[in-house]
Every structure is written in structure tokens, then in C-alpha cells.
Please model this.
Amino acid sequence: MIAKFAVGLALLFVCAGTWAAGIALNPDHPERYLVAPNDTIWDVASRFLKNPAQWSEVWYRNPALGNPDQIYPGDVLVLRWVAGRPRIELETAAAVPLNPVIRVTPLVREIPAIPADAIRAFLTRPRVLDSSDVDALPYIVGFPDEHISGGAGYGIYARGLKEAKDTILTVVRPGPAYRDGATEEVLGYEALYIGDAQVRIAGEPSELLLVRAEREAVIGDRLLAVEPHELATSYTLHAPEKPVAGRIIGVLDGVTQIGQYQVIVLDRGTRDGLEVGHVLDIHREADTIKDYVAGGFGNVVETPPEWSGSLVVFRPFDRVSYALVMKAVRAMHIGDIVRSP
Model:
């Protein structure tokens, strides 16, 4: 009887480490964690879970909170078991009667889902041009005083503009085509950010002033409307509801080998079911090796795809998405496979 009880107790602890429904806790997970100022939701999820994509399945969205998905530095998170399932929630003090007081606290921003500094430049600037729109966009036709290029403070002439005086526009340069990793279909074009320009005289052509420039503008650069606000950096990490599979088709730092915290481009977008906060696994493509034991000409074996790391989608477009590599156990390359965890 004692032996049966001991076995049952052991099984209970095993189940507590790996939930029957597939939630695997980090073997070194804390029971209670104080959120640090430099944490991200990915960091916090990794402390508790083997797979941060399962964060939305264990995070308790307290309806009493204004935004239950936001976590702030100084918050205390606790791991509890409810009906045999792990649940991570915000530790709250017991309710006690208090006299009305005025409380002044410093303004603290919630922790981001992923490192904000790594993606900030990609949140507000348009970076993907639709293949059908490139030729229809307004463009720089020339510069005053016969200049062939210009930086901040230079004037420019543009054709095709309908915007009024003082309107701010973004200047971009169409880059390489983004192509489907399997079919080679053109999904869009990279839009290299040049700077911002303000309309001084509306007309045909219009005269503008380059008020900001990261690189020199040239004839043929295109003009786009400025996006009205910065996109959110705080959201829940979660796996796609439906299976998603695609490939890495670009990297925005101009390198061939991809590592942690690099921004990559995927050949899947909102029309394929991707959304902000989706976590995908990255796999090295299957390879073939010769079977010298079996012998014979052309006797080869296909190796299974190797898991290389994980990514988080932070800016999906219609047909492509920007994602940040959050974990890398080996070098990754353009053409590697991405799919639901």
C-alpha cells in the first residue's frame, strides 16, 4: 500500500513538470518571479516554460485588470496549479479596507514582448511595397541647381503627388523583390528607408524639403504617406491556431548567416494567418547523405530537418512578415524553414 502511494506521488510530480496536455515547464522554473526592468515577455516566459509559444495557454488574463496582457517591472508573477493545470498569474495583495489617499508613483512602461530596441526602426517606417503599387507611387524627378542627389536640408522635385502644403511624406527606395520560397512568386519589394520630406509647394511637379535623411535621396526614389502611430510592442506570445509553414526569404542586416535578435523576412503574412505575437520554430532544411553501407549508385538518404531556433512575428504585412529571431542554437540561413511549433 505504501509502495503504491509512493508511486502515485512520484507520478504526480512528473505530471507537474510536464502537463498532460503538452505544456512543458522549464525544469528550473521559479515558483515566484519579480519582473526586472530589462525583462521582456519572452524572457519571463522562458523562465517558466520550455516553449515560450505556450505563454498564452498558462498566463491568467485577470478580467479585473485594465489590460491583463501587460506586465510591468516590479510585478510579482506566481506559478499555481488550478484543476491540475499550470497557471501563471499576477500576485495581488489581500484586500483590506483603506482610507482614501492620494498616491503618486513614477510613470513606468510595461515590459515589451521582445526587445524593443531591436525592432523600433521597423515599427513605424513602411518597409514592404506591394508589387502592383511600385510604378504608381510618386517619385523624385530632380533636385534644384542640377544636383543628382541630396541629404537633409536639400530641396527635391517630385511628380505624382496630391498632398497639400506642409504634408510630411516618407522617402523610400525600392529594393530587391521578396519571392515565395517555394514558387518564386513575387510577394512584394523591400522598401529601403531614405528619410522624410515636407511639401513646400504643391503642384506638378511639387517642391519638397528633406527634413530628415539616413542616406542620400536620388532620382527615382518613391514617396509614401507617413504611418500615423507607432505599432504596439506589448502583446501576448502565442502559437498560430492553424498550422503555418514557410521560409526565411530575407534578412534586413545584409548578412548571410542569421543569429539571435536579427530581423528576418518570412514569405507568409496575414493572408496566411500570421499575426503579431505569433511564435514559430526555425528548421534547417533537410539534407541528403550517401548511404555507403547499402551501396549502389544514387543510394541516398534524406535527413530530417534540424531545429535551429525560434522567432516572434512583430510586423505582418499581407503577404510577408517581419520577425525577430529570439533563440538560435546554430547559424540560420535564407531558405530555412519556419513552421508552427
